[in-house]
Design brief:
- The protein is α+β, with helices and mostly antiparallel strands.
- The protein folds into 5 domains: 222 residues, 2-Layer Sandwich (Ribosomal Protein S5, domain 2), CATH 3.30.230; 75 residues, Polyribonucleotide nucleotidyltransferase, RNA-binding domain (Arc Repressor Mutant, subunit A); 168 residues, Ribosomal Protein S5, domain 2, CATH 3.30.230.70; 61 residues, K Homology domain, type 1 (Ribosomal Protein S8, Chain: A, domain 1); 89 residues, OB fold (Dihydrolipoamide Acetyltransferase, E2P) (Beta Barrel), CATH 2.40.50.
- 33% of the residues lie in helices and 27% in strands.
- Strands 7, 8, 9, 10, 18, 19, 20, 21 and 22 form a 9-stranded antiparallel beta sheet that branches. A 6-stranded mixed beta sheet has the order 1-2-3-4-6-5.
- A hairpin with a 2-residue loop joins strand 1 and strand 2.
- Helix 2 packs parallel to helix 3, helix 10 crosses helix 11 and helix 15 runs antiparallel to helix 16.
- The N and C termini lie far apart (102 Å).
- It is a peripheral membrane protein.
- This is Polyribonucleotide nucleotidyltransferase 1, mitochondrial.
- It comes from Megalops atlanticus (Tarpon).
- It is found in: Cytoplasm; Mitochondrion intermembrane space; Mitochondrion matrix.
Length: 769
Amino acid sequence: MKHFLVLGYTVARLNLRHCHQSAWSKHGTVRKIGVDLGERKLEISTGRLARFADGCAVAQLGETSVMVTAVSKTKPTSSQFMPLVVDYRQKAAAAGRIPTNYLRRELGTTDKEILTSRLIDRSIRPLFPAGYFYDTQVVCNLLAVDGVNDPDILAINGASAALTLSDIPWNGPIGAVRMGLVDGQFLVNPTRKEMVSSTLNLVVAGAPHSQVVMLEAAAENVLQQDFCHAVKLGVKHTQQIILTLQQLAREQGVTKRTPPKLFTAAPDMVELARQLASEKVYAVFTDFSHDKVSRDEAINKIRLDTEEQIKEKHPQAEPYEVIEAFNTVSREVFRNLVLSEYRRCDGRDLTSLRDISCDVDIFKPLHGSALFQRGQTQVLCTVTFDSLESSIKADLITTALSGVKDKNFMLHYEFPPYATNETGKMGGMNRRELGHGALAEKALKPVIPADFPFTIRVTSEVLESNGSSSMASACGGSLALMDAGVPISSAVAGVAIGLISKPNPEKPSEILDYRLLTDILGIEDYNGDMDFKMAGTLKGITALQADIKIPGLPLRIVMEAIQQATVAKKEILGIMNKTIAKPRDKRKENGPVVETVRVPISRRARFVGPGGYNLRKLQARTGVTISQVDEETFSVFAPTPTAMSEAQEFITEICKDDQEHQLDFGAVYTATITEIRDIGVMVKLYPNMTAVLLHNSQLDHKRIKHPSALGLEVGQQIQVKYFGRDPTDGRMRLSRKVLQSPAATTVKTLSERHSISMGTGNSNVTDSS
C-alpha cells in the first residue's frame, strides 16, 4: 500500500512539473515594455506571475502596480450571452493598511470596486467574437499603491495586455488613459493631487485605428469644444499603448485558440425564419400605435409561431439556434427600418424626443420631490436633508486608494421589477443599479453648492422603464433639488443617443453607413450598437457614459453624437424650465434646521453631562443631532422646526443662567457638602448650582484617603477658595487646602454685587485663620 502511495505522489509531482513547464513555454521569458504618456511612463510586464492563467500582465505607473489575469473555459455554457465576469479587488496590503472589520480580512465588495469592474467590463466586452459563449473571468489585483497614481486605468490596460497575450479569442488590444483639465491645460493620467483641481475626469478606452470603445466622464460644466478635444487627445495616446501591445504579442508569438463552436444561428435556419416572420415583424415595427407592452406581446407571439415551425423543419436543432435565428431576423428588420427608411418603431424621426412632462412638490411632507416622465419612462425623485454627520464615510482602504474621505451628496437609484411588468426580488442592489445611480450622481454633483449646510440624499425610483432611466434620473433629480430649495448653480438634463450602423463585411471595424437616434427606447438600445448617455447644463457637460457594443467607433461619430446630445439637452432643459426654472428661494417649512449654539467653557461640562449623558438625552428626546465645531461652539441639526424648538427649550434649561458670573477669582466662599465620596466631597456654592468635586488633595495639607478622616459630613458647610475654570476641560477649581495656611483671605457671600478686594475687612469677611 505504501508503494502505491509513493507512486501516486511521484506521478502528481511529475504532472505538476509538466504544468510548470507548459506554463513557462506558453508565456515565454519575462518581458517588460514601456509607453511614454505625457510626463509619465506606463510599464507592462508579463511572464513572471500567475503563469497558470491563460494570460497575465502587470501594469505599473509610478509605484502603483496592478496584476490582471484572464482565464476562459474551453467548454461552452448554456448561456445566450457572453458570460464575462470582471473582478476588481482593492487589497488593503497594497495601500499599507489592515482591514478595519472584525475579521481583519477583505470582505464583500465596495462601491468603488464594483464601478471599476463595470468600467473594465465595458472596455473589453465589445471585442470578443460574436457567439463566443465561454465562461471568461478577468481578475484585477492591486499589488501596490503609491497614493499618487490611480490604479483603475492600470487595470484596464492590464486586462487588455492579459487578453492580448493569452490564447483567448479577443479582437484587441485596447488602450486606456485618463484625461484631466487643470487651468486650461489637458493632462494625461494626472496624479491624484492634480485631479483635486481638475474640472474634468475623462476615461477613454481606444481600439485600433483611432476608434473609441468606451467613454466615462465626470465634468464641472466643461464646454463642448474642450470636451471633444480631450476625447481626441485621449484616443491619440491610447494608440501608443495599442501599438506597443501589438508588438509584444508578435514577439511572444501569441496564437489564439479556435473555439469548438461559436453560438450563431445556421444560415439555413435564418433564411427560414426570414421567410416565415420578416413581413409580420415589419408590420409590428411600422404600427406606431403600439406601446412597449403591446409591441413586445406582438413580437413574442410571432416569435413563438416561428420557432415552432423552425423546430418542425429542423428537429435536431439546439434551442439556442432556433432562438437566435428569429432574433437575427427581428434585428435585421428593426435596423433596416432605421437605416433605409429613416423611421423608428414609435413613429418619431431620428432626432425627435419623446413627449416629456414634469411635476414637482408631489408630496408635501417631503423636503423635495419631482416626477419626470419621458415617453414610457417614469422616474420619481425625492430629496432628503440630514446633518453633515450623515455624510458617507469611506472605508480606510478606499480613502487610501482614492483620497475620498466622505461625501455629503449622494444619489441612490432603484429599479424595481414592476417597472418592466415583471416580478422579482425586492431589496438589495445589483451592479446595474449602482452604475446607473453613480452616473446620475456625477451629472448632478457639479451644480451642488460646496458649502451647503446639510447632507443631501436624492433617491430615484424608476416606476416605468422604456429606455434611458439613468438620464431621466438626472432630470428628475435636478427638478427635485430645485423644489427642495437647494441653490444649485444650474438645472441639469440628460439624454441617451443610440446608433444603428452598417459594417463593411470585409472589414468589420469599418462602418459603411449609420444613423444616430436621439432619446432611445429600450428596444433601440437592445437592437442597436451604442447607448451614449450625456448630461449637462446649458453651459456645458457634467457627465458622459458611452456603452459601445461594436469593436470600435470612429471619432467622427463620437463627435456627432456629442453634438446631437447637446441639442437634445437644451430642448429638454427648456421643457423642464416651464415647470420650475430656478431653485425655490426658501426651503420648505417642514424642512430641517441647523443652528449654532455657543457654550462657554464654564458651562460645557453641564451642557454635555457626565459621559455625554445630556447630549444623548437631548438627541433621543428631540431627534436632533449635535456635533462640536470648536472649543465653545456646537452645531445643532433638527429634522423639523418643531424638533429645533424642543431642543432649544432643553438646551436653555440645561444652560440657564446661574450665579457663577458673580463669583470672583481668588475669593473665599462658603460651600455646602452634598455628598461624600472616596476621592473627595461634592459641594455647592449656591442652591441651584450643579455639585462639583472637591478632591481629597484639596481638602487639607495632610494626605488623606477618605474625607471622613477630617470629620466631614453631608450638609456641613466649609470654606473654599475659587480659582475659576480649568481652561482645558471647563471644570470649576476649588480648594480648601489653601485656606489652612495662616494667611488672611477674603470670604464673600453671593449677595454682594460689588467687588471686594482681598484682605478688606467688613461684616461678610472672615479670617480663615
